[in-house]
Amino acid sequence: MTGRAGLVLTVLAVGAALLRGHAQTPPAQTFRTGIELVIVDVSVRDHSRAVTGLRAEDFVLTDNGVRQRIESVEATAVPIDLTLVVDLSGNPAGVWNTRPSLARTTAAIQAEVSEVAKMLRPDDRIRLLAIDTRVQQVWAMQPVASLPAITRLEIDGMAALYDTLAAALLQPVEPARRHVVIARTKGLDTISSIDAGAVRAIAERSDALLHVVAMETALDNDMALRGFQCQFMGFCWPTRRSWTPFEHRLFGPVHQMLPDGEALAGGAEATGGVLHKAAMLSVPTLTSTFRTVFDDFRSSYVLRYTPREVPAGGWHTIEVRVPGFRSYIVRSRRGYLVEEPAPAPAPAVIPKIPRTLGELTTAYGREAYRQVMAGLREARDPERLLRDFERAGNPWPAAPRREAAFALEVAEPAIFSTRRETRETVYEFLSRFSRLVRHPLEPDLFERYWHFTLLTLLEGSIRPAAAEAFVERALERFPDEPRFVLSRAIVTDQRWATRVEGPVTGADGLPTPAHVEAVRSRYAAAIALRDTAIEANIRLAWFLHRIERHDDALAHLSAGGAQPIADPTLRYLRQLFLGHVLGALGRHDEAMEAYRGALGVVPGAQSPRVALMNALVMRGDHAGAEALAQQVQLDASDDLDPWWMYWQGQYRLNSLAMTRLRELSR
Amino acid sequence: MFLRRVLVLSFVLATCLAGGPTAGGPASVVELLDRYLAGRFDAVVEELSGEVDYGDLLKQLRRDGPGWIAAGGSEDRARRELAAATFALEAARAGEWREWKLTQMQSQVCVVDSGTDPWCYQPLNVLYWKAPPLLIEWACDLLRRQETPTAIERWWQLAALAVAQRSEDPQFLVGDTKIGLGVLAGEIGNTQDEIKHLDHVIPRFPKEMRFVLAQGIARDRDWTDDAVQVYRALENHPDVGGEAMMRLGAMQLRQRQVSDAVKSLERAETLTRDPYVVFLARYFKGRAFERQRHAREAEGAYRGAAAAVPHAQSATMALASLVFQDGRRTEAHALIRGMLAASPPPADPWRAYVHADDRFWPQLVGRLRAEIVR
């Protein structure tokens, strides 16, 4: 270690008030800076001897070429924030080497850190980083008086040297403190994201002073072992961990500096620091390096000035000289950067009715679902919304489930669109998402709910030809899911109900035998499953009633009512259908009883009242029918008649399904 | 030759002496299997992660395993087989980063014929498997005895693939990837000792595309044409298409086909939402853009990757570096601060790039363990 000093500059920025002032005035046109005070550490040496006793007038300091007035010169060093970087990496692809002992390594590092800590003053602080497969922060910055013991180190083997150095350099420096980085490295990088050139570029603009201590002998030993094992034992290839993305070395076999080493040395020098290599008989250590650096600090000067007549923002090149003494070597860093303050982004406000995709995704991200639904209800061009969504990509890349749930929300207006082109677009969109929602290993609960929510929408749109493909896809993933089995039956049933889709109607207007069999067998499959048996029985009964197989229909309604029905919609529909079937069988009193039963479930429903009215007329009770008719007209009940949504299948469950899906996507 | 033998023997002896069992002696395999079957999984794994002689463990498992399985009677046989196979997998995973295989270069052999000059040739290298891969194969063989593969065997095979990929050794999965490349590249001569694990698995689960993808991954370092073929064939598969495209893009980037790489990586993103794949596709895209000196696009790609796996170090570092060099130091500081403060740190997909399906290990072993205690 030579006597080269590390010098630190600290920029004192004044914070919010000045930043505000800065924002108001274009920095390139003003000489009023956002910098109140600049502090520059300067080391002056006459050969190996530190020069003391200099005064302000002995120095000349220029900032971007403009001479500045030095306000004060202090010989007392400012407090130090020290970042120590230790290298845990081994050679993972080593041929047959012993695994480093974690306990031994930890103890050795702990001892070294303690040694360094002893040299520091009470107001100094230490951060400890470790180089390995990933950057490890063993501690964040700690007061030297209360250093914790090292309890957590990971030795994985690869070397993220450049990433770790950059992480050490990319630290803000508090006003009136200096940041020193002392990094000990084996000189090998195997997995970093950035290269040595980037570390150099960062160092040149960093506020830290960087010293790199090269442990060339560790690499020598490693290479010697490898060579020995290959040449004399025939073991030339890894015995474990055979993947090394690349090998970037600082030094070659005879310790000559390679381009990466030069880049790092250049970076260290730009900060005022040095890359320390082994000398003839001595190997630099963390402790010895720090001792030298610390000695330099003790004998360095702290110059303070307020920049004048230089633009505030951007890079400031500084130069310090002691013109009266030509033999003096003056070291300070080469400059500092004043960041142009970026305008603070305005917080996104969620409008009452979000209309653009950005507004909708912002609202959805904040779980403002009512607003999202209101916005989607009023969407004028659902197709464009879909295209925008596809083009923009996932707004929540770390939460793909949220995107999938939102895809269904944004698809709904298009599914119900009257425009064929819009519907075709949404079907394509949904096909793509039905792939994206798949878990890579197996169908999971979220995917199940996603398909179910989608099927409720498609059933609700009553476009069975389009829905069938999605039902089949859902069943392919979840063959035993009762709701999907029922869905298959419902969309098949919808074919005859809509009549416009598919050749399912015979010349007599009744469904073809093949269609009857398809509907019957598919409902039968759902009847065989406990969760859907009731609804499937009720729906099959209604189908049979419509093709005038009333006895069979009655049997299924009886089967459907054989156990308590929890879902009020199904309870209601069963009673309503029972009334119709019994009426068709001429059992009018029982039919009227059934209609009354339906009204008992949904008192305001219109269908059973109208049916009851008809039954009264059939029996000749005109007065009773008239009274009921008046009641129907006068009653302003808000009850939604479930019959009106009968053909929309399980769409009644859409809201619940969507809520569950949102929960699962959080 | 003699010197080499002496050195090998002394090295092996020294290794054995240094790594021998401790005085107290570890639990026997039968004891460990009993504990594992009883659901004390974490305790057993902890023990397997200590100072374990995996060679001895394999020996015990081969000797005592069948008896232990049979001891439960026919009713419990399937469960015990699964427990033993999963135990072997856990042991292999605990030991694979300590020892996996040895490939030994042979001395030249010279033939001296009377009347002619001696001629010499270099025999191919010799491969010796260490215990962890053999543990996997012991268990795989145990499960394969059942003619019809079961659903739980699929889970076990997926878990075995995860362990094998974490070993970083493609040879175990598909055989010698240096074949035809010669002695100095590591080509081996004792091909009869190859395991080629995937050759056992794929016929049993021909519809499981993860095993097919694994073939591509295993080959993409040395047999790039084969890997390209696999990746392209899987492009439209809903479960692995995205990952296949991402790996194709990464390979193209390595081969300096930067424009093709960007296309493949962008395609990957349209095919999957698996954060691991999305992260890597964006991260590699960032590297491709950096190579093209398109700093703004690179920044966007790294930002996207960091959004897919927040605080993952590779993308965060790359992004912070670009941002800082662009003069936005406050943002760079904030990125690094967040990255270092993340606790626990997120698994970085780039650091686990070759470990592939190992990312599913918790889910896979969880399923196997649940089946064992069911």
3D structure, described in words:
- The complex is a heterodimer of chains A (666) and B (374).
- Helix content of chain A is 46%, strand content 14%.
- In chain A, a hairpin with a 3-residue loop joins β8 and β9.
- In chain A, α10 runs antiparallel to α11 (400-415), α11 (400-415) runs parallel beside α13 and α21 (606-618) packs antiparallel against α22.
- Chain A starts with 8 loop residues before the first strand and ends with a helix.
- The model of chain A is unreliable at 1-34 (pLDDT under 50).
- With 374 residues, chain B is mainly alpha-helical.
- Chain B is 61% helix and 4% strand.
- Chain B is built from 18 helices and 4 strands.
- Chain B has helices at residues 2-18, 29-37, 41-48, 54-70, 77-95, 131-144, 151-166, 170-174, 197-201, 209-219, 224-234, 241-254, 258-271, 275-291, 295-308, 313-325, 329-341, 361-373, and strands at 101-104, 109-111, 119-121, 126-129.
- In chain B, β2 (109-111) and β3 form a beta hairpin.
- The longest helix of chain B is centred in the N-terminal third of the chain and has 19 residues, at 77-95.
- Classes of the chains: A alpha+beta (666), B mainly alpha (374).
- At the A-B interface, β9, α3, α4, α5 and α11 of A face α1, β1, α15, α16 and α17 of B.
Architecture blueprint of SSEs:
The complex is a heterodimer of chains A (666) and B (374).
Chain A: E1 9-13, H1 16-24, E2 35-46, E3 49-50, E4 60-63, E5 66-67, E6 70-74, E7 80-87, H2 102-119, E8 125-131, E9 135-143, H3 161-169, E10 178-185, E11 188-189, H4 196-204, E12 208-214, H5 216-233, E13 248-249, H6 259-270, E14 275-276, H7 286-298, E15 301-305, E16 314-321, E17 328-331, E18 335-338, H8 357-365, H9 369-377, H10 382-392, H11 400-415, H12 420-436, H13 445-461, H14 464-477, H15 482-498, H16 513-527, H17 533-546, H18 550-560, H19 568-584, H20 588-601, H21 606-618, H22 622-634, H23 654-665
Helix pairs in contact in A: 2-7, 3-4, 4-6, 8-9, 9-11, 10-11, 10-12, 11-12, 11-13, 11-23, 13-14, 13-15, 13-23, 14-15, 15-16, 15-17, 16-17, 17-18, 17-19, 18-19, 19-20, 19-21, 20-21, 21-22
Chain B: H1 2-18, H2 29-37, H3 41-48, H4 54-70, H5 77-95, E1 101-104, E2 109-111, E3 119-121, E4 126-129, H6 131-144, H7 151-166, H8 170-174, H9 197-201, H10 209-219, H11 224-234, H12 241-254, H13 258-271, H14 275-291, H15 295-308, H16 313-325, H17 329-341, H18 361-373
Antiparallel strand pairs in B: 1-4, 2-3
Helix pairs in contact in B: 4-5, 4-6, 5-6, 5-7, 5-18, 6-7, 7-18, 10-11, 11-12, 12-13, 12-14, 13-14, 14-15, 15-16, 16-17
